[in-house]
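Thread: "does anyone have the structure for this chain?"

Original post by V.I.:
We have the sequence but no experimental structure in hand. Need at least a predicted one for the grant figures.
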Amino acid sequence: MPQLSQLFPTGDNLIGWIFQLAFFVFFIVFMFYGQRIQIYIIIREVEGSLMRLKFMRDKGRKMAIETVKEIGKPSTDPTQRVDQFLEYFAIAPVNLDPSGVIQRLEHLLDVRDIRFKDDVRLMAPQADETQTNNLENMLEAALALNIIYKIMRHFYILGKKTFSLYIIMQLQMVLPLIMREAKAYASALKAFTEGQPIGDGAGALVAAKLMRGHEKTQIAKDVVMAKMPIEGRTAYVIKAEGPGANVGKPGEAMKRIIEENDGKVALTIVIDAGLKLEGEKPGEVAEGVGVAIGGPGVERYK
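Reply from O.Q.:
Generated one for you, tokens below.
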């Protein structure tokens, strides 16, 4: 009888027996299906981030279309051209033979820039040069959001189809950084839409202050130069022509100045905005060695 009472407990023992049985059931289920449950949880988390990315992508596309209509005043609906622009891509030159790869990359970037500007002029025929540059950068930010969303969607669907924990976990681990990058592009898109200055304007602002009151000449594509004395020395100050969002070719301008002076340039000072690391205060000034010019490296190489 005592043995039968243990099999069929009553009272307080019944509650303990239920908890014990529930624990064993949970343990068995988790042992056999724990990985699948974990995959389902991660997929739901990634799906939520993907929906936020899609919202940012669609909002950027809508903002681009509305801005093109407002500034460019096209005679036809620019939606189709904007959608084509957002799917644009560029293939890097072959680097198996490193000789001349910089020149090939520069040619590719020049062709890409010309194509982008031609497309923007077709979309926004009433836009002036400054507005064209701003619209081009705005569309490039929208293009970047579209690429991020498509890559994220690809790995999300791939992980869901294969039910691979490793694909899904890699996606989950990089999600916070990808979302921060996407938010930065979304903020930049708004800044370009409204023609607001961004961090990269710091160097141009310093150069413009030094150039005030001096004659400026165009020395390279979309780059101006002013010659002036500073503390008993002859200084050549160069900056992007502006005021639109266009860097031009500062490397080419520096190369020409050095060649015109037969290489007799004592010092080259480059001012640019750096990437702020977490924990650093905005606006801090740091000095270093090297050429502080962003981009794929063509201008820095010159």
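V.I.: this helps a lot. The chain has a mean pLDDT of 83.
O.Q.: and Residues 76 and 123 are 9 Å apart (CA to CA).
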